[in-house]
UniProtKB/TrEMBL annotation:
Taxonomic lineage: Bacteria, Pseudomonadati, Pseudomonadota, Gammaproteobacteria, Pseudomonadales
Family matches, as InterPro entries: Bact_Kbp, BON_dom, LysM, LysM_dom_sf
Keyword Chloroplast: no
Keywords of this entry: Cytoplasm
SMART domains named in the record: LysM (SM00257)
Protein name: Potassium binding protein Kbp
Limits of the BON domain: 20-88
Keyword Hydrolase annotated: no
UniProt cross-references to Pfam families, sorted A to Z: BON, LysM
């Protein structure tokens, strides 16, 4: 369980998500997770200011990380309080990297793996949130598998 930080000004804009008193914020977040292609996981969310808290249980560490990224890569979200448990086998958590202006998946791959041609590994690790290797943006947080 941890608190992950995100670039508050970056990410997909969900109308009224962070409006104080938004009774539908939790439902909007579940819809967003489903919309990015992660299905309907057994998680619950609450929003307090610019922090999202997520609880529940998922089958794999990868699923957990993708849900955390889907919730954190929303404009206005500064942090995600991870309270998700993993029912499957314990594996090492992936690293995370924040995309900087001018970054490409190849450049990130070169920096983390020493080989620009490993960009597809990063792309696959961030599917379905990424639809194309060229569609990343500054401030976005990505999973970097070992």
């Amino acid at each position: 369980m941890s608190l992950l930080s995100f670039v508050k000004e970056a990410g997909e804009k969900l109308i009224d998500l962070l409006t104080p008193g938004n009774a539908n914020a939790s439902e909007q977040l579940k819809e967003h997770v489903a919309k990015v292609g992660l299905g309907n996981p057994n998680v619950q969310t609450t929003v307090e200011g610019d922090k999202v808290t997520v609880t529940g249980e998922v089958a794999t560490q990868e699923e957990k990380e993708k849900i955390l990224l889907a919730l954190g890569n929303i404009a206005g979200v500064a942090s995600v309080d991870d309270q998700i448990t993993v029912s499957g086998p314990a594996i090492a958590a992936a690293r995370f990297v924040v995309v900087k202006k001018g970054d490409t998946l190849s450049a990130i791959s070169l920096a983390v793996y020493g080989n620009a041609n490993q960009y597809n590994k990063i792309f696959e690790a961030n599917k379905p949130m990424l639809s194309h290797p060229d569609k990343i943006y500054p401030g976005q947080t990505l999973r970097i598998p070992e």
